[in-house]
Amino acid sequence: MPLEWEQVIVHSVDPAALGRWWAEALGWVVVHSSDDEFEIRPAPDRLPGLDFVRIDEERKAKSRLHLDFRPDDQEAEVARLVAHGARRVDIGQGDQSWVVLADPEGNEFCVLGQRRQ
């Protein structure tokens, strides 16, 4: 029996605000919205998606899961995301080819450098 990857759940104190931020950052569409849940996908019928689910407490520790993105132009994409409200963060990565950013609720994600041929 094969498994299909449906979505990644992101706990959030404000699912709609964070979900809208990610939808705009990724150019994705909203497929579900309620008071406690906000789901986005690359297209309405395309998986996997990101599902932002309300949690009443602020994040207290480093995320155990984060997303990595590989753009065509790392420098331009980092600048775009920072202008959109992301912030650079230091999680002890040192001097690497990727850039660590955090979304408005502090969830870390990486913008990778150019793929090695």
UniProtKB/TrEMBL annotation:
Keywords: Plasmid
Location of the VOC domain: 4-114
CDD domains linked: VOC
Domain of life: Bacteria
InterPro entries noted in UniProt: Glyas_Bleomycin-R_OHBP_Dase, Glyoxalase_6, VOC_core
Protein name as annotated: VOC domain-containing protein
Lineage: Bacteria, Bacillati, Actinomycetota, Actinomycetes, Kitasatosporales
